[in-house]
Structures are given as structure tokens and as C-alpha cells.
Design goal:
The structure holds 2 protein chains of 2 kinds. Chain A is mostly helical. Chain A has a single domain, classed as ABC transporter involved in vitamin B12 uptake, BtuC. Helices cover 73% and strands 1% of the residues of chain A. Chain B has 2 domains: 169 residues, 3-Layer(aba) Sandwich (Rossmann fold); 74 residues, no CATH class. Classes of the chains: A mainly alpha, B alpha/beta.
Chain lengths: 313, 254
């Protein structure tokens, strides 16, 4: 019964999400189509962090690096004349995954606090690398002259772009759900519960964690490709550690290890920002209070209030 | 002693931590079949030896051979794949998972690659059936749908052994299987090990001398990082050097 209820909720959310841009346009709220697009892109980024943190049990404090690398890949390619989404976006995914593979291969040899610090250090290295990259804007970042081109779709149209982002987010969530329920997902669960025992069962745990980290880097790269298209701009700030922190806060708000935790958290945080910043410039104070409340009163995130499907059980 | 090649052979193994020599040119041979017990006072280097056999700690020098193959440089997980199963002194089970899912992970480890991302693991009937077979064989079938963490201590210890056994090891390494058990539960565990030794070779570290002398076919005595005596239980009991170095205080008890 519970499963059916959650499926019903999911279907309703999906229908509402598809109908939203048309309704918003009819009501003259076009501005909010862009807001929701941004929410979904951050939802994808936070979901990719969820794969690392919630499913893989790895506390990465440098996840924004892969988000930023994906964004830079698209912007740099555009400056060099490659504007096709079919070319640039897969390259952004590949770049995010490649950086995650290299950074993960080194970082995953450490544990606990050291892992947090080394992922942070790598992300900051990339942050300063892009600051020093004068050919591509340095500190100022680079503008994307126009959104990526996709045959048959006009991405300049906000509704079209919104629907494409929605489809990509939905696809990634579906893939994450499949992965979590697969053999690979079972191994991740085992490693999270007790890594020493997994080794004693014959699993090369390092390899599984590295694959998890790399896949998540690729997904973050895709989110980066989308955010640079949304903003038309990318700067090193996107790779800063505060961005990694933002993704972590979103996930904690939404529910670590819950399939929709990244979505719930990104929506909660960005909409809170939208509402609070309307009233006060000190909106982060309000966010801090909400975060405190969630951590103290609902450690499973806002999702835990109405969802039973938490991967953390 | 039989002249066949031993299943596990440790040759001149040496390991030191700073100025402390934990394993001192240690030789050990475990023959196929039966229970080989490893005893020794605290600080004799049993834990470090086990860690080296399992691949958690790399020796400074010396060799470890398993089934005739040099495994000294092999990572831990690869040793398990060759047939070296183990249980831990401190229970290491998947507390948050059902008992059946605990064992299913062990079955999954020895049934093909787990780099599979698409098909739901719940749809693989063979894994659940394999797990049920292991649990039924150990008389734990009734608790298969219970979260492992909520089992009573003695049953968690049984699950610990079951996890090692589900890997179908050629050599089962039991690290203090009776740790923290009351008298009654210890008797049940001794019964279980007696049953297991019909199926697989067991190398057991244990402090409970009653259990050691009831179960072991061969006993090796570890003192100061080296094996000072190895042989049948009666021979070990009568060995004057063992008495002096280790059994002294417990002489009357044996």
C-alpha cells in the first residue's frame, strides 16, 4: 500500500513538474521557470553527491570541482567553436568523470577526516587552476555566447530548456534507483555497513568505491554543463569549497541516502533563498536556522517526514 | 606427521613495529583437514600473524604460501577468492541488513562479477536460495528475516562464522570464535566448530583452553613472535618448554 502511495505521489509530482512551465507562462510568471530550472540543475548536482555520500558512504568535500569542470568544459569548447550539445555535453560528463577518477584514485586511499581534507584540497587546487587560466577568463570567468545547440530543440526557449533539464534529472534519478537496487548497489551498501567484512568476503572494495566516485563525477559534470547553459556564464566560484558545502547542505536538508534527497534539498534550499531574500538580505541567517532545525529534529532530512524509502533504513 | 604439502605455510615471517618485533622469523605449517589451534599468551603476536595471513599487514620479510602458491604480496580480497575465509575477533556483520542479506552478499561475492548496475539484485533467486541453504545448514533459518544487529550476541557470533563459511573457504580462519560468550553459548559454538571441521580445514586462535583441547588436532604455541612448539594436543600438554613459557600458571587447570 505504501509503495502505491509513494508511486502516486511521484506521478503527481511529475505531472505538476511537466505542467509547471505552461501554467507559469499562462499566469505571466515566466521568471519562475528559470528559478525551477536552476533548482533542478542543483538537484542533479546534489543527487550526484548523494551517490558518493549517501550510497557510497564517502564524505567528499570537493564535489563542486566536478560540477565546475563540466561547466568549464562546455564554456571552453564554445569559445573554441564547439557549440553542439551532442559534442559538448558528453565531453563535460567525461571531463567530470575523468577528474573524479584521478582525484578518487588518490583520495580513496585515505579514510575519514583525511578523505574529507584531501578531496577539499584537490577541489581548491582546481579552483586556483581556473583562476590562473587567463586564456579562459581567469578570475572573471567566461561568458557563454549562446546556449548549446541541439538539433530540433531551441534551448534558448526557457520552457524547452526546462523540460530538457527535467528529462535529464528524471533519467539520472531512474538510473540511480536502478544502480542502488543492483548488485553494485548491494556491494556499496555492504561497504557502507562494514568495509573490513566486505574485504573478508573477497570484494576489492577500493575498486567499487572508485567506480562509484567516478560515476558521480560524471553526473556532476552533466549538471555543470546545464548550469553554464542556464547562467550563460561560468567563473571559478563554481568550484569553490563553499559550493561543495552548499551541495552538502542541500543533501543534509533533503535526506542523505534517500533517492530523492538531492531533489528535496535543492528545492528546499533554493526556494528558501528565493523567499527569504525577498524579505531580507540576511537570508542565510534564516537558512542557518532551518538547517539547525532539520539536523536536530529531522536528521533524515525533510524527505524523512513523508518518505519511508530511505536507503539508510 | 603427514608429508603432503601443507595447505598454508608460513616461512621465516618477520615483522617489526618500530623497536618491537611482533613476528620473529616465524615458521608455521597447517595441513589440510582438521582443526589447527594457535595459542599463546597476550602479546605473543597472534593478532599480527593473523593480519599478515589475511593481507591486512604486510610482512617485512618471509613468505606465506597457500595451496602451494605464494600469496605474500596478494591483497586481502584476492586471498579470499583463493579460499582463505575468516571470522573476526570483534564481530563484523552488516548490522543494518537482514540476516539473509548478510549471507547473500557472501554468496554474491563468489558467484560472478558485481560490477553490474542494471538488474535488481532482489531478482536473483540464486543468491537468496544460496543464503538460505547456508543458514539452514547452521540452524539459523528461523532468524533470516531479522536485522542482524538485533540478534542476541551469541547469534551474532554464529552469523560471523556463517559469513566466513558462506565464502566456501578451503581454510577457515577463526579468530577467537568464543570471544565474549557465556558457558552455554560457548558449548554450542564448540559443537558448531566440531561440525565444521568435517567440511573444511580450520585455523583457530582461541584463549579458551577447554575448547582448544577438545577441538584441535594440532596445536602451535606462539611466544614472543615465534612458534616454540607445534604438535598433537597431548605432546603440547607434556612439552616442558611450553609449560615453562606459557602454561605454567594454568598447569593445574589442564
Amino acid at each position: 500500500m505504501r509503495l502505491r502511495a509513494s508511486q502516486l505521489v511521484l506521478a503527481l509530482v511529475l505531472v505538476a513538474a511537466i505542467a509547471f512551465p505552461f501554467a507559469a507562462h499562462a499566469l505571466g510568471w515566466d521568471y519562475y521557470v528559470g528559478v525551477m530550472t536552476r533548482v533542478m540543475i542543483y538537484a542533479l548536482a546534489a543527487t550526484s553527491l548523494n551517490l558518493v555520500l549517501g550510497y557510497g558512504g564517502m564524505i567528499s568535500f570537493g564535489h563542486a570541482a566536478f560540477f565546475g569542470v563540466g561547466a568549464y568544459a562546455v564554456a571552453i569548447l564554445a569559445q573554441e567553436g564547439v557549440t553542439s550539445a551532442w559534442a559538448a555535453w558528453p565531453i563535460a560528463v567525461a571531463a567530470g568523470a575523468a577528474f573524479a577518477l584521478v582525484i578518487g584514485a588518490i583520495s580513496l586511499r585515505t579514510r575519514g577526516l583525511y578523505f574529507i581534507m584531501i578531496t577539499l584540497a584537490f577541489a581548491q587546487m582546481l579552483y586556483y587552476f581556473f583562476i590562473s587560466l587567463k586564456a579562459y577568463g581567469g578570475e572573471d570567468g567566461i561568458n557563454l555566447a549562446a546556449r548549446s545547440r541541439l538539433p530540433g530543440l531551441d534551448l534558448r526557449d526557457e520552457t524547452t530548456f526546462y523540460l530538457l533539464v527535467l528529462a535529464l534529472l528524471g533519467g539520472c534519478l531512474y538510473l540511480l534507483g536502478r544502480l542502488a537496487a543492483s548488485r553494485f548497489g548491494a556491494v556499496l551498501r555492504g561497504i557502507r555497513e562494514n568495509e573490513a567484512r566486505m574485504t573478508a568476503l573477497g570484494y576489492p572494495t577500493y575498486r567499487y568505491r572508485l567506480v562509484c566516485f567516478t560515476v558521480a563525477g560524471g553526473a556532476a559534470g552533466l549538471a555543470g554543463a546545464l548550469i553554464v547553459n542556464q547562467h550563460g556564464f561560468v567563473s571559478p566560484g563554481l568550484l569553490d569549497w563553499t559550493q561543495s558545502g552548499t551541495l552538502l547542505i542541500m543533501l543534509i536538508l533533503g535526506g542523505v541516502g534517500w533517492l530523492y534527497g538531492g531533489v528535496a534539498g535543492a528545492a528546499a534550499m533554493l526556494l528558501l533563498e528565493e523567499v527569504l531574500s525577498y524579505w531580507t538580505g540576511y537570508w542565510k541567517l534564516g537558512l542557518g536556522l532551518v538547517l539547525l532545525f532539520v539536523v536536530l529534529r529531522a536528521p533524515g532530512g525533510v524527505g524523512s517526514w513523508f518518505a519511508q524509502g530511505n536507503a539508510r533504513g | 606427521m603427514p608429508v603432503a604439502d601443507p595447505l598454508l605455510e608460513v616461512r621465516r615471517l618477520f615483522k617489526h613495529f618500530g623497536g618491537v618485533v611482533a613476528t620473529d622469523r616465524l615458521d608455521l605449517a597447517v595441513q589440510e583437514g582438521g582443526v589447527h589451534a594457535l595459542i599463546g599468551p597476550n602479546g605473543a603476536g597472534k593478532t599480527t600473524l593473523i593480519a599478515q595471513i589475511c593481507g591486512e599487514v604486510a610482512p617485512d620479510s618471509g613468505q606465506i604460501l597457500f595451496a602451494g602458491r605464494d600469496i605474500t604480496k596478494l591483497p586481502g580480497h584476492a586471498r579470499v577468492a583463493l579460499g582463505l575465509g575468516r571470522s573476526f575477533q570483534i564481530t563484523r556483520i552488516f548490522s543494518g541488513l537482514m540476516v539473509r542479506d548478510n549471507i547473500a552478499l557472501a554468496v554474491q561475492a563468489r558467484s560472478g562479477s558485481s560490477m553490474r548496475f542494471w538488474r535488481p539484485v532482489a531478482a536473483e533467486r540464486a543468491l537468496a536460495e544460496g543464503a538460505d541453504a547456508v543458514l539452514t545448514g547452521l540452524g539459523m533459518g528461523a532468524s533470516r528475516d531479522v536485522a542482524a544487529g538485533s540478534l542476541p550476541h551469541a547469534d551474532q557470533r554464529r552469523l560471523e562464522v556463517a559469513l566466513a563459511l558462506a565464502c566456501r573457504p578451503r581454510l577457515l580462519l577463526l579468530d577467537e570464535p568464543l570471544a565474549g560468550m557465556g558457558a552455554e553459548d560457548a558449548q554450542a559454538m564448540i559443537g558448531l566448530i566440531a561440525q565444521l571441521k568435517q567440511r573444511t580445514t580450520i585455523l583457530m586462535v582461541e584463549h579458551d583452553m577447554d575448547a582448544v583441547f577438545r577441538l584441535a588436532d594440532v596445536i602451535s604455541v606462539l611466544v614472543g613472535g615465534a612458534v616454540i612448539a607445534s604438535g598433537a594436543p597431548q605432546a603440547i600438554r607434556d612439552d616442558p618448554e611450553v609449560k615453562r613459557a606459557y602454561l605454567g600458571e594454568e598447569e593445574t587447570a589442564i
